[in-house]
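Researcher: I need the complex structure. Ligand is flavin mononucleotide. Inputs:
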Amino acid sequence: MNAPDLTTTFCGITLPNPLVLASGILGTSAALMARVAAGGAGAVTAKSCSRAPRPGHPNPTVLAWGAGFINAVGLANPGVDEEIAVLQETRRRLAQAGQGVKLVASIFGTAVEDYAYLAERMNEARPDFLEINISCPNVHDELARPFAASCPAAAAVTRAVKRVSAAPVIVKLSPNVTDIAEIARAVEDAGADAIAAINTVAGMVIDIRARRPILANREGGLSGPAIRPIAVRCIYQCYQAVKIPILGIGGVSCGEDAAELLLAGATLVGVGSAVHSRGIAALGQIRDELAQFMLAEGFGRAAELVGLAHWPAGMAGS
Ligand SMILES: Cc1cc2nc3c(=O)[nH]c(=O)nc-3n(C[C@H](O)[C@H](O)[C@H](O)COP(=O)(O)O)c2cc1C
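Model: Output:
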């Protein structure tokens, strides 16, 4: 059997493979995003940016606690002006490398108007996709309830961004809700081109000797292997609820994990924490492992796996 075909089309745009660097993992750096791309990613996502620069939360902000990470970076970023320059430089490097790796910009705000402003500004950087982060769990003391927590709020942001964005809009959802499927339906109805699921899972780790939460922000967002079953469940529920494609994210560390998210209904698979545990070449390694799994299991194209766990519907479509 020939090597499996990993090229994947998402919102009409073709990526060399379904693996996407998740937002925030490598901060705001064109050089690092280009290295992840060269290492075998299908697309790279920039750190979420806001209108003004944000210093983020005081240290400690990231902790490896055993089954993954907990972070409360607090959306530290240099603000939209510098972010546009970084994205332009990243795009230049990706084009020069000529591997067809796509660029995803990411924005967040505290009001619908912020999202509309940022989405319009992002057109200057000409990303391939625009992800809107309405789901960060670490900033609600400061920025109030995430937009991803309510259908009308999530829909309002989506509509405002869709009115101005030149790039397809991916709305990033939160697992920290009672019913992620209803939020997915609300953003689809509001015009979203795709969904990303999931952002981090709200959590806390306490130092039992100090009798205090370890993170300076007290609460944080869990990522890494511990959250994969939560991501799989959320992707599965979204796949049943909407027709738009899904960028599945959460706890993927190897090719078989990526296959699991595809089977749940993801078309693309985001990788975040595994870059910390496996290094900058993680996405290329996971891509190769996915190809090996597909070869062993007799799959010729990545698209054949998407949603296949929704038996019997998946079987009927296969
Ligand atoms: C240190 C850190 C920073 C993050 N920053 C962002 C961010 O700026 N925007 C965003 O949408 N998600 C952010 N995330 C969430 C990731 O993009 C991803 O959704 C989450 O970590 C789950 O994937 P993983 O288990 O593969 O890490 C961040 C995650 C981590 C660990």
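Model: Summary of the prediction. The chain has one domain: 8-317.
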